[in-house]
Amino acid sequence: MRGLMPKKSAKLASGVRRIKGGFSGQGKKIGLVVAEFNEFLTERLLEGALDALLRHGVAKKDIQVVYVPGAFEIPLALKKILAQKKFHAVITLAVVIKGKTKHFDQVVNETAKGVRELSQKSEVPVILGVIPALTEHQAIQRVGLKSANKGREWALSAIEMANLLPKLKGR
Ligand code: INI
Description:
By secondary structure, the protein is an alpha/beta fold. The chain has a single domain (25-164), classed as Rossmann fold, CATH 3.40.50. It has helices at 7-12, 39-55, 74-83, 104-122, 136-140, 150-167, and strands at residues 30-35, 63-68, 89-97, 126-133. Strands 2-1-3-4 form a four-stranded parallel β-sheet, with helices on both faces. Helix 4 (104-122) links the parallel strand 3 (89-97) and strand 4 (126-133). Helix 2 (39-55) packs across helix 6 (150-167) and helix 3 packs parallel to helix 4 (104-122). It is globular and about 50 Å long. The two termini are 32 Å apart. The structure holds 5-nitro-6-ribityl-amino-2,4(1H,3H)-pyrimidinedione. 5-nitro-6-ribityl-amino-2,4(1H,3H)-pyrimidinedione (INI) binds next to strand 3.
């Protein structure tokens, strides 16, 4: 669980400089790229993510949502969004279901690869919010309400990374 540190490591880490991002979203500009494929699931992820962003202090005016047809289109849209240099972090949201596609591995792997490359190149944190699921049932379990909604978790990761990166600038 987030924020919990076993007693032993807490002892070992005392006196050691630890750098954490933290979860205040105030002043942070966050972009989201959402796949329309499996929309009934990706919209649930989006709801969870938006709720978590707002609860953690991100202003509505600082959030932008861009829709793409499917997960595979995420990297191209992401490239253009990152080129705008407007956001402290971007969250990508998609659900890819194995039962529905023969090129499941290709879609999942290419999307993840594109996201990783663009994030590293731009030095802007991009959260890989892609759910690869074997069945629709499995996917539904990950877009539930409250803690079972992965969108919430990814929103927190975005805020944490947006706060962390400025702290990692070289001297
Ligand atoms: N895209 C998804 O986001 N999820 C899926 O489950 C999916 N399936 O099943 O095929 C999917 N395919 C579309 C793909 O992302 C592209 O939009 C398409 O190949 C056109 O480039």
